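Minutes, project check-in
Item: structure for the 959-residue chain
Input as provided by the requester:
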Amino acid sequence: MITPKDTNPALPAAISQAAERHWQRLEEVWSAGLAQLTSTAQQELKTILGLSDYVAAQLCRHPEWINALLSGDLKLLDRKDYGIALQQQLASASTEEAAKAALRRFRNYQMVRLAWRDWLNYACLESSLLDLSALAEALVIGARDWLYQEMCAQYGTPMDKAGNPQPLLILGMGKLGGRELNFSSDIDLIFTFPEHGETVGGRRSLDNQQFFIRMGQRLVNLLDQISVDGFVFRVDMRLRPYGESGPLVVSFSGLEDYYQEQGRDWERYAMVKARALGPWSHFSDELHALLRPFVYRRYIDFSAIESLRKMKQLIAQEVRRRQLTDNIKLGAGGIREVEFVVQSFQLIRGGREPALRQQSLFGAMDTLYRLGQLEYLAVDELKHSYLLLRRVENLLQAIDDKQTQTLPTQPLDWARLCYALGMTNEAELRTHIEAAMAKIHRHFKATVGGEEEEEKAEHWTAQLWHAQQEDHGLALLAEQQIDAPVIWPLLSRWRETVNKRSIGPRGRETLDKLMPRLLAELLHQPSPATAFEPVVKVLEQILTRTTYLELLCENPGARQQLVRLCCASPWIAAQLAKFPMLLDELIDPAHLYDTTSLDDYPSELRQYLLRVPEDDMEQQMEALRQFKLSQQLKIAAADVTGVLPVMQVSDHLTFLAEAIIEQVVMQAWQQVAQRHGVPPYLEGADTGFAVIGYGKLGGIELGYGSDLDLVFLYEKQADSASQAHLQEAMTNGDRPIEVGHFYLKLAQRILHLFSTRTTSGELYEVDMRLRPSGASGLMVSEIARFGEYQANEAWTWEHQALVRSRFVFGDNSLAGKFSAIRASVLETPRDPLELKIAVREMRHKMREHLLKVSEGEFDVKQSPGGIADIEFIAQYLVLANAHQYPELSIWSDNVRIFGVLAELELLPLMRAQQLTQSYCWLRDENHRLTLQQRPGKLPYHDVAEHAERVLAIYRLVLE
């Protein structure tokens, strides 16, 4: 049995000073109590005050706990007592506030008790983790049961169709499920209930799912909300089906359908640890039985290895993105790698070996040894290394009740760890930690792998990279029949640049490994000198970011794609140089060129955002930008390699923008609504708001770097008695404002989220000048007023713009109303001659203002016969004929408009085809020029055939 430190070695000076500060604070509030303690008790109390700021803060607030702790609570702990003791304290709580206070006081006392036991070796690590997990489970279940009684009294008891009461079941995920919880961990939960039905015995019946969703919301609040007593646990519900976009609680059948039809590999991995919390029942058996086929396949499933490998790559990417160092959980050889090793075996063989279907990592490790899947030495090294890292992690968090896995930066915290772990100093403890992580990483590589063996033989390019004398370098290049006079000066200059930079020994060593491999790739190119310059521009940006140098060094696929894409497109090279985190996308070429399906952008973005705390706006904004950049890179990579034709490139860029617009609007809505509430007449998830896309977004024709032409609309209460009442409508939050003002704030917030420049740049440049009255108009328009403006005040050029507009995101009711307004305006009869003159004059103005070309040059967009002329032809023909042919007002993109015009014989089929072909060719050229980072201009002779054909049709139609 572990016993506390009774020999009490002298406290290091730093710990003694911290202890003295806390002791003085304690004397101010409890001097009489301190005086009555024995000298041994005083010494132990001083020690724990010096070791943990959290314990010290709690004891200064609650000095009455000290006697109870020293009188036996430290030595005697039966984790089965948690539930009973908590139930007694909650029994007297008659309100939610009282329950919150009781839960938090109970939690704080028990956490002080557990931290004290851990710091002073009253219990081994495995017991500490079990104690922490049992405490968390008791608190969650205690809160659940108290709340269930409260809500049943209010709404009645939820029943199935046979009249059986239905409980809320809670799946504990991660370390809570495995009974291995950290001192200051989040708890990941999933809420579910057995069967649908409705409540019985309340004032009015409530659907079971609604009952449990309300209960779930209140339960999260009971546990997660910060009060004067702190919180119980930070609760993360993002592992539930569909993540944040899914309902908070689903039935057993909903859970089963989701995992059978849509469950992903990472969700299988997460479900290995899932455990129904609280007293076991037949409902618990039923829940685990329905989840088992999803987690454990009947066959030996080696696909799990590749899935885990990819998950590890994502974690490594996250470590690089967040620039984490000294992280004992996520870094190479960290805690997560032990979990991957063990869970890879569980996922592969758990279908055949029922003994592996367990949540405990320690238990699974022992089972793997018994089954002969891991050797004794591997189990011993993994277990002891894991125990050291978990002990360090637990103590780190017990210093100040902070969730961290990063080694300290303060000497005091190192002294605390060394004291508790019996180490002389930081250097000795670091040596032990590094040795443990090296052993773990070795076993991880052997089991999960995914890393290339280093090349043994020194390639001739290594000699070239290290060659100092010009004649030596030239001779090496000549032997390989490479154009030495061009490449050698570039290589020499680059090496001089490197030598002047402060890289650090690890970075220089990695660069020396990388450059020979990269040179081998570059020198295989048709023009090595042309390839060299864009590639080294990327390297210049990452010279001091060793993790990215290592990424390129260890991933041949990434090196090949870097060279290939930089040669194909200077725009891609510039993106990689500006945003090095995009290098992660190059690791897996199959993934890089597998562009996201058009319909999947919204769900992919939601999944991407799940890894970022929803209340961290800065990280959310950064994640949106990173998602856009990475998806844009995939589209560009598929574009330059010919995988995607121009029409599909624009489709992908447009659908990507729409997915981002949806998330930006929803985030802005939550932020404004949290502060001011929402218009009181809205129901359910309605927002009464819409985003209209104009220009390239409206025409589904976005290019790389296109801005977004947007117009915002909102809807006032439809059935209000009077206009005066509408003007007075206020939002229903703590700080109510007028509805019109609410939507103005929403629009401003959306623009802020788009335009703020983070590490990954601006999200999109947004142009609002096409709104009613342009730059002088309101930022957001009421839908009825928008209709009036378009019908009575708008200029012809605004109606032209309306041709290329469409509903992009918002409420369905507004989509219908906008479409009706658009159709009505476009189908208004117009005088053909007046219309022709107005359209032609606008085209001349644009040309005068925007066309700037030299002799023999052709501006792809603005020159006569260019894209703008084709767009004006389409717009004129729609406005001139839609009153007779309403089908002309359906589409917003030029290609389909020309198709309808040809079908209606308003434009001869041959001319419609010629315009469509020229339009697609010119847009393709524009994309190509963007990717080459060249202005949108071509030699006239290259484009003469298309330009003259377009110009001839333009004159026939508009002159």
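Outcome recorded: Confidence is low (pLDDT under 50) at residues 451-458, 719-726.
No further action items on this chain.
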